[in-house]
Amino acid sequence: MWQTYINADSIEQVTGILADRGGRAKIVAGATDLMLEMEKGVQKGIEILVDVSRIPGLNRISEDNQGNIHLGPLVTHNDCVGSKLLREKALPLVLACWQVGSPQIRNRGTVAGNLVTASPANDTISPLMGLNASLTLSSNTGQRIVPLSEFYTGVRKTVLRSDEIVVDIFFPALRTNEIGIYIKNALRKAQAISVVNATVIVAMKEDRIDRATVTLGAVAPVIIHATEAEEYLSGKVLTDEVIKIAGDLTTKAARPITDLRGTADYRSYIVGVLAMQGLEKIRNGTEAETLLDNPPILRSKMEDKESLLGTGEISQATPIITTINGQKFIFKNGHQKTLLRLIREDAGLIGTKEGCGEGECGACTVYLDDATVMACLVPAPRAHGAQIKTIEGMTINNNMHPVQTAFIEEGAVQCGYCTPGFIMSSAKLLEENPSPSDMEIKQALTGNLCRCTGYYNIVRAVDKAAKKMREQ
Ligand SMILES: Cc1cc2nc3c(=O)[nH]c(=O)nc-3n(C[C@H](O)[C@H](O)[C@H](O)COP(=O)(O)OP(=O)(O)OC[C@H]3O[C@@H](n4cnc5c(N)ncnc54)[C@H](O)[C@@H]3O)c2cc1C
Ligand code: FES
Ligand code: FES
Questions:
Q1: CA spacing 20 to 30 A to 203: which of 168, 233, 451, 467?
Q2: Whose CA is nearest to atom 1 of ligand 2?
Q3: pTM exceeds 0.90
């Protein structure tokens, strides 16, 4: 693990540290990739983690007067899901972000982190490639702009230097005649990386396709274009036959491997099917049908000024000072732990559970600065200056939270190991949406796994709590 942790307060500070410390310092944003990579030994020799997640102003999504959309390096997947601008002008990216992990992962995981991790199965790369995105990279020696199409050199390899930070992701907004979609094939509907994915964007001229872009994920070492399909589609009307031929040409473009998620043949076939589905949905005007109008985000909005609390270097000499359930804690140890272990071992609050330790099960869900997160993926020093809420802090005037009561009444608890995580996610959902539909409840709970009760009673309990809270 790391020796020193720095909660940075500016880009200049970050590039200064990266320049001074060479490859021994590493940027950390949401930590959803990096924590696991360090734990599994994929990332070795990191002495200093430079946490950029408190630098103000880096989570902005904006459009400039030349029609380019800009994403700051701290824009999370949930920021994209909640952005009206992106829904209107970059739908494929929103559809991709909506399918990343679970709400807790989407609250911390950034688009920049997803691009830099550079797995060809990552969700945001094929839509951003389809949207013709570029990255602005900054270092102590200046800035350079790299088109995303030139950023990747192989599986998990990019041209990013160890002294550089991504400071901007930008791309032309879709025009009114352009329609796009992103479709993912995975082994589960949530918390699953792509077996393959495809982005299809077409520019229409009356009823014909003027220009088409088809980009494919997880069928080659880097994201690729299905060039023959793109060329074929130009000038065509989207008939069933045209869609079928475009699907076949997409299959032909794939050069996948066989791995535990799927065979090469399956991947080639299914990516053609995804392209056909995408074209069909575009033809039918149903490209946005998988997005909810009010998607559960599971976080409250923090002000920029609040995020600045807790910046500075956190090492053994400086205690982690944090607030848990309204009470101030000063931790002199635990600097190289996860937040989950800090909460359980050092604060003695053992209601928050460890199920998987990999962000998969949600048993460790807590609120970090009012957002649901997987505490097993948060480095403990990120808690310095933060507000944390755990299951122990959920009572209201010494009474159980209505969600807790409803779980008991509806038999939504058996062994109870998963229950604290479910309560945290459910209560946050009801804060942001007092009348959730069944689908919204299910989506909000996609990051929480239960191995014994099953989900019917849990969904019923959340619905019951919602009704009770509305009546109060
Ligand atoms: C349970 C689970 C489920 C997941 N599901 C999915 C999924 O369905 N689809 C998917 O695509 N991904 C998934 N992921 C992967 C992950 O959440 C994403 O890749 C995430 O977007 C990474 O962003 P981060 O901010 O957490 O990156 P971090 O972990 O903080 O960093 C990742 C890498 O990017 C670098 N980095 C971060 N920001 C910058 C920057 N601004 N400039 C330069 N370098 C930077 C870091 O140094 C590091 O090398 C999942 C992860 C988990 C744990
Ligand atoms: S998600 Fe953190 S312990 Fe399983
Ligand atoms: S109640 Fe046992 S795992 Fe959910």
A1: 168
A2: 359
A3: yes
The domain defined by 397-472 folds into: DNA polymerase; domain 1 (1.10.150)
CATH architecture of 57-284: 2-Layer Sandwich (3.30)
Give the list of residues 6+ apart from residue 252 with CB closer than 8 angstroms, or none: 226, 228
Q: Distance (Å, rounded) from C-alpha 398 to C-alpha 395?
A: 6
Per-residue pLDDT of 10-69, as tens digits, reads 999 999 999 999 889 999 999 999 999 998 888 888 999 999 999 999 999 999 999 999
Plot region of 118 (φ>0 → left; ψ -120 to 50 → alpha; else → beta)? left
Distance in Å, CA 445 to ligand 2 centroid: 14
Name the residue ranges covered by the structural domains of the chain.
57-284, 397-472
Residues with a CB atom less than 6 Å from ligand 1 = 26-34, 36, 73, 100-101, 105, 108-110, 112-114, 116-117, 122-123, 165-166, 191, 193, 359-360, 377
Q: Which of 181, 175, 172 is nearest to 148 (CA)?
A: 172
In the chain, which residues have pLDDT < 70?
301-309, 315-316
CA 362 to ligand 3 centroid distance, Å: 11
Report the pLDDT value the prediction gives residue 40, as an integer from 0 to 100.
Answer: 87
